[in-house]
Amino acid sequence: MKDLNTYKLLTPGPLTTTPTVKETMLIDRCTWDSDYNAITQEIRHELLRLAHVDNGQYTAVLMQGSGTFGVESVLTSIPAKDDTVLVLVNGAYSKRMCSILKHAGIKYETLEYAWDEIPDINSVDDYLNDHPYISIVSMVHSETTSGLLNDIESIGKIVKKYGKIFVVDAMSSFGAVDIDMGKTGIDFLISSANKCIQGVPGFSFIIGRLEVLLASKGNARSLSLDLYDQYDTMEHHGGKWRFTSPTHVVAAFRQALRELETEGGQPARLARYKKCNKLLREGMEKLGFKAYIKDELQGPIITTYLYPENFKVDFSAMHEFLKQNGYVIYPGKLTDIDTFRLGNIGEIYEEDIEKILSLFKAYKEQDDA
Ligand SMILES: *Cc1c(COP(=O)(O)O)cnc(C)c1O
User: Fold this and answer.
1) Torsion of CA 85, 90, 92, 94, to 10 degrees
2) What is the pLDDT of residue 282?
């Protein structure tokens, strides 16, 4: 236990969790036990509440694996044989959606945008008007690639105008950014245990509109990622998972949900993330680090920085220097330019941001010398 929390993670998940979230994992639980299944049910119920939707119209399903498993579960379980999916692409995670569809042999088309811009609403409107055979529209909310926050409300309106199914990867926003699934017209929302709810990695979750989910029975291209089947077992067997579930992770997630409430719920968490992100952006700019995403499109979760012009950055040296001083940063994910990323989700507070800024300043001065 000596090495516990020797450094904090400025990464977009896994992230730094509280000692109390970690402590819940010291107990071994049985997947057959009703106490354990009750934890799953409590989580499902709480997730619906966070998405502002009711049991009866929507359902929450937990799925083993990382976030991608959840996205893959939806995209390979919901489309019927002849359905075509339209993917709005402006980052690596929307590109991954295309890759999932390609692997499964599901028909898809894309609308591509610059990675530092949000999808143009008129282009989506025109495309859906001209291509009536599209049945599902899929996009990412918070593009963790860049830190940009997409406008799912405006796109949702268009998608609903044409009566299409709307799938949103809200992996790195749900729990911190307010999402009213009903109002936004989202039919399937995907997120995971180790992002803004601040649990540990090991499962993803899907909040889905029941009517569409029930109609998808038999469509799944995979056994283990069959969303309908997973729902059917969980719903009708009191919170039981089909296959072995990550018991420690599930217990930790329930604790994380309770701690989200203690903090003041989603609004308080967003306020903390926003404050930290603003402090970070302002401080980094003063030091000569330019953010890749402009202020109006920047989300509260992670910021991408271009390598500064006034001094040379060696990512691995900088990473090592910061790690020795208690913080781990993240490499960039853009293909054409050199960048690095700083996440501010997890147990990160203003004092951490001040500390990080002073470390960057020290690193820069060391380089200047
Ligand atoms: C983290 C994340 C995912 C899932 O990534 P995994 O490595 O599979 O957990 C998907 N989409 C977005 C936007 C993410 O931030």
Assistant:
1) -20
2) 96
